[in-house]
Design goal:
The structure is a homodimer. By secondary structure, chain A is α/β, with parallel strands linked by helices. Chain A has 13 helices and twelve strands. A six-stranded parallel β-sheet of chain A has the order 2-1-3-4-5-11. In chain A, α11 links the parallel β8 (about 255) and β9 (about 280-285). The first copy, chain A, is elongated, with a radius of gyration of 26 Å. The N and C termini of chain A lie far apart (about 65 Å). Mean pLDDT of chain A is about 95; it is low at about 1-10. At the A-B interface, α4, β1, α5, β2 and α6 of A face α4, β1, α5, β2 and α6 of B. Chain A binds a DNA duplex (16 and 16 nucleotides) through α2 and α4.
Chain lengths: ~350, ~350
DNA sequence: ATGAAAGCGCTAACAC
DNA sequence: GTGTTAGCGCTTTCAT
């Protein structure tokens, strides 16, 4: 044990059970694994004994011997520069969803954080045999690193957008459709100058931006680069950028934000500049986290299928591990229309 | 294209590196562990080789040999009856906080879900050597089971309330103070008939209820049992209970809810019954999740030190593992006053 | 400075 | 049916 001398009794092992039961270790092993080869009476007796002593087969040893392992690593990257912690409700929800899916399927989940600039360091979890596969939450700026891992045959699945030249399996919401849908809604509500909030260096955001631009063009409008604001996910910095936007006099009457929290910051910034939501500026969020339904105003937002996400990610990874093909998967999103951007403004 | 045939490529191991480097496994082992006994040149050469082949020491085998393990299990109980998943933002946040603390200290985190009615089944993670210690989120209805584990010397720390006759180490917010603080605030705001929302079978809730009652008595009021509503954490069922409360004609002008989401359900139920918040009914929440600052109205709520929680839980567990004493710890909470229950009503 | 060999706790041939 | 034995991939005496 790494620590724990203290009150710690030496851990019980199979040999102890064997001695107490008056049989050999093999018999105990067989008994505890429910082998038919062992006498019913003996098996029961050994089972009882083990249970009464809270003995449980050492999984480390068992895995080593059996060359198996049921652990999947779930990797939540963090921003090393801002020392940012896991906090965005969306990441946390998706972790919960994956935890449920893995539990249902009988796998263990190792939750791991890695520097977003070195996503490929996550491979160490696989190389060391710590986990048999990886679920990585987000591509961040390192599509290339993920491709590198896939080229090395590291079994991984990534929550994120589907990109050209992609060697790994991604599962994500339909970001292009989401961006287009949200923008289309704002346009239908009569908004013409729509701000896009999000760092397009992140693939998911880039795809949403693409949908946004397409929707504008479809409406005969020319995207205005000044309205595309590369705010970070980090809330405080985002707010500052928003305040600058509101202060600089550039007119806008709609906002499409790449997360609900970002959208709510936009609401506050707009209000701080003396305008109203949705009257003067309609705001659309992204993710549809619980906060969106309770906020003031409730957010029109693009719903991401978080509940499904865990199962899809896990099933794709398990397919990969079986040697099956796991094509990237784009999950449907839908627009939840609420008061921050109603269809018919008052 | 999602590459990845099955587990084809036989995993690299130390013997392979040894062969390629023309040395013995012992030397490779020493080299990779930075032993001074091996020639500098050889060590570097082996290091390079290993790195270039993405070889990483098999941790399962290493742990078995070294009798060590750096894995902590974090257990998030779930309600088996309602098949409820990890969803309350508070649980998710605290998991994030623990993940950060464990990462900082160099431990791995195994995220595990167990049936809340069988918390003691979490011990299996320890008995099987899967983890060297447990962090359990919440006592639920099974203080007794947790005591049982502690009596068995299972190294565990529990997020929850401090109870009499407690054999295990708990870390939690000051629930009595939180309940009293919130109630005192409502009283100071002139509210007299305050509903308490929460299932007092859960120790944390029971302690908050105790604080609530005490605050009432301190104000010369007699707690009215009809105002103590044992709503579940589960949102839909809670809402139904709230609607019934609003319908049954029992007058009340304040609400203390045991989570922010519960508080927001209360807001909606009150509004659905034709009354206003906070004018007719002031509402106080618990936890101070992000939703509380953005909601309509922003919630007055008891702030729990989630950021601290992870570090406190982990440090307590590590102390236990060192054989040190880990006394239960009650963390300070504070009231965040916002519009759902202002001090001075309009 | 390096190698051979024993063994961590377990399972699975292969005996009997 | 049950015991004996040989490893799973690694570290570490103990030799050299």
């Amino acid at each position: 044990m790494s620590g724990g001398r203290g009150a710690e009794a030496k851990r019980l092992q199979m040999a102890d059970i064997a001695r107490l039961a008056g049989v050999s270790v093999s018999t105990v092993s067989r008994a505890l694994n429910g082998s038919k080869l062992v006498n019913d009476e003996t098996r029961d007796r050994i089972g009882q004994l083990a249970r009464s002593l809270n003995y449980s087969i050492n999984l480390g040893a068992q895995n080593l011997r059996l060359q198996k392992n049921q652990t999947i690593a779930v990797v939540v990257p963090y921003d090393a520069q801002s020392r940012q912690h896991i906090s965005d409700p969306f990441f946390l929800s998706i972790v919960g969803s994956i935890a449920d899916a893995l539990t249902d399927r009988g796998y263990d989940m190792l939750l791991s954080r890695v520097d977003a600039e070195h996503l490929d360091s996550a491979a160490q979890l696989f190389d060391s045999g710590r986990a048999i596969g990886l679920v990585i939450i987000g591509q961040w700026r390192h599509h290339d690193q993920l491709n590198g891992l896939a080229a090395r045959k590291v079994p991984l699945v990534v929550w994120g957008g589907q990109l050209p030249q992609q060697l790994y399996c991604s599962v994500g919401g339909d970001n292009v459709a989401g961006g287009a849908m949200a923008t289309g809604h704002l346009l239908a509500a009569g908004r013409q100058r729509i701000v896009f909030l999000g760092d397009a260096q992140l693939p998911e955001v880039a795809l949403r931006l693409q949908g946004y631009r397409q929707a504008l063009r479809d409406a005969g409008l020319q995207p205005d680069p000044r309205l595309e604001l590369p705010v970070p996910f980090e809330i405080v910095a985002a707010r500052e950028a928003l305040d600058r936007l509101c202060a600089n006099g550039l007119p806008f009457d709609g906002v499409l934000a790449c997360s609900d929290l970002l959208a709510l910051q936009a609401v506050q910034a707009v209000r701080a500049s003396g305008r109203q939501v949705p009257r003067d500026v309609a705001v659309v969020g992204y993710d549809d986290m619980p906060v969106a339904t309770y906020s003031d105003p409730p957010l029109t937002t693009v719903h991401q299928p978080v509940g499904l996400a865990g199962a899809e990610l896990v099933d794709a990874l398990l397919a990969l591990l079986r040697g099956d093909l796991a094509p990237p998967r784009t999950l449907p999103v839908r627009l939840m229309v609420r008061d921050s951007a109603p269809l018919h403004s008052a």
